[in-house]
Predict the 3D structure of the following.
Amino acid sequence: MTDQSTATRLWGGRFSAGPAEAMARLSLSVHFDWRLAPYDLAASRAHARVLARAGLLNEDELQRMLAALDDLEAACASGEFTPTPDDEDVHTALERGLLERLGPLGGKLRAGRSRNDQVATDLRLYLRDHARTLAGQIVDLCQALTGQAAAHVDTPAPGMTHLQHAQPVSFGHHLLAHVQAFLRDLDRLADWDTRTAVCPLGAGALAGSSLPLDPAAVAQELGFTAPAANSIDAVSDRDFVAEFLFIAALLGVHLSRLGEEIVLWTSQEFGWIDLDDAYATGSSIMPQKKNPDVGELARGKSGRLVGHLTGVLTMLKGLPLAYDRDLQEDKEPVFDAIDTLDLVLPAFTGLIDTMTVRVDRLAAAAPQGFTLATEVADWLVRQGVPFREAHEITGKLVSRCVATERELHELTDEELTEVSPHLRPEVRQVLSVQGALRARTTPGSTGPTAVAAQLEQVRSALAARRAWADTTVVPR
Ligand code: ARG
């Protein structure tokens, strides 16, 4: 690190010397907040225009300012301009870049704004932008799941409760259950976005500005729906960070639950799916191994997503209004959440897209464990037997099967009547997996017509969410 006293600092005037090395190192954020640079530059362009309209920059100065900001943006994008460790944060670094290009004119841009309203604005822009990329990645995964679901509407599987065989379901229906969870995540992102589309710029340090600025114009130029209603709240509020982290954490939990199922389904015991070689890994010692690491990493990485939410809520809970330096700790958790999901989602999409469903194994497993017992009880109900009694009769039937190691359909007519005179041989008609599936016709159930309707609903919901993901946050 070079001599701090000669470095660009945004606050040197009242100090006789630069900060101690340990102070500077603690304070530093540019190594992580540099990714806000494009958003900070967009906010600077909007601010420059407002300063010009307020008569604080003449037309020539405005044009030179905008040209320098464009040039700086290009230099940042190409890597020609990079921050140095002497730049405390992204705002310091970019002011240095502006001063290098414009000399003293570069110092005019700071009028009427503070890093407090700047950083809150930058982070909202960054997150609103990345929420759309994230939404696109979730839609990709949903489309992969929906594709597999469409191919397996008629593939029966043992539906489970308590991880025990319960009732037969359509495997497509099961996959679509995961899609429903991800659709809620997508809804949450769009809903979060409407609350986050409020612009803090103009709040200054905390009290607004004595200069004739125009926060509404800045808000509009930056794609926000409104300027902040309260300057103190504008620089203090990090609800949008906490809420985003909740959405990321819950998305992580959804990915983890799907990951856990992938791990189960690829096990020797289940054998329901085969993974493509491209989405599995081997063992360094056991040549036969093919491991479901995507599912495991999705499951494992959900821990850090939940942790980031906890960390930020804990950081926020004791803070007095307005800005406190603690708030600098808001960025790394969201950046890591976005980076983590950016790793997990595309890999998971690839895994789902390329996996092979072992229809024979699923179909064979579907009736195992007396999953058709409810059909017998429902048949008895249709014959007028109270369900309480029907449940009892069917339970006896199952217990006889268990004792004699047989399936329900293997019991003789005599054995059926022995258990209950209500059990006529016609009951066998309901002892088929496909029959049990077809009998489920209520909306949202696992029968083929209901699942087809669900597929249609899911596809149109995904098209709407894709359209949202493709919108642009910062107009240029
Ligand atoms: N790097 C700071 C942050 O991320 C920017 C705001 C600094 N404001 C201040 N008053 N020191 O929060």
Remarks:
- Residues 29, 33, 89, 115-116, 119, 323, 325, 327-328 surround arginine (CB under 6 Å).
- Residues 49 and 62 are 7 Å apart (CA to CA).
- Residues 1-5 have pLDDT under 50 and may be disordered.
- Strands lie at 156-161, 164-170, 198-199, 226-227, 273-274, 356-357.
